Outer membrane protein beta-barrel domain-containing protein (Treponema porcinum), 223 residues
Amino acid sequence: MKKLLAVLVAAGVAASAAFANVEMTLNLYGTPFTSFVMDAEFDPELRPQGAFGFEDQFGFFFGSPAKFVDIGMTLSYGLDFFRDAEFYANGEKKEDNSTGFGMNTYLTLGPAARFNVGDMHSFLVSPGLGVNLLALTGDIDVIGFTCDFNLDLGYRIWIVNKTGFHFGFDVGYDLSVPLAGSAALNGDYVDDTYDVKSGSRNKIYFGVAFNFGDKSPDKFRAE
């Protein structure tokens, strides 16, 4: 774990040299509600249960047009695991179709605005696009892939503020909504591939945050 953290910090330092202001967060997250509804006559729906995982987020900030804001883009990726998933058809839960262990992984990219309130507090708003891969086994085996609209709303509190370096903690909410995708289902009652027509993935995350470079208050104070 120490080696991994050292590698990620080194990556943040290298990126800050290229972009001058780079934020990196290392997070744990859970998804209290996830739903994938497929386009079929009986509206098959999957709801993974108890998903928990980890992610890494990078914010590359290119400019600070005002004392209170940094503008740039974010890149995030993560992996989570869940114990099972509930299966629904025509809005009714199918108790005789159980699923076992599953996993979910994703990658998102989009523009970002980080609003800074003094030195200690920052609020991140980042809409974007992402890709998501889901796989699980059980009475019904599923492999699904979606392209999503993503919205990340986060808060950071900076407890260490030095010239060129900041450290603190972050917490946030992340919403993903499928724009397109497909899922292959295989089981006793179903064996087909369907388009994903709707759903949502609601994520709550928390972790540690690093900022390599000067945030907008530092830049304007130096002028």
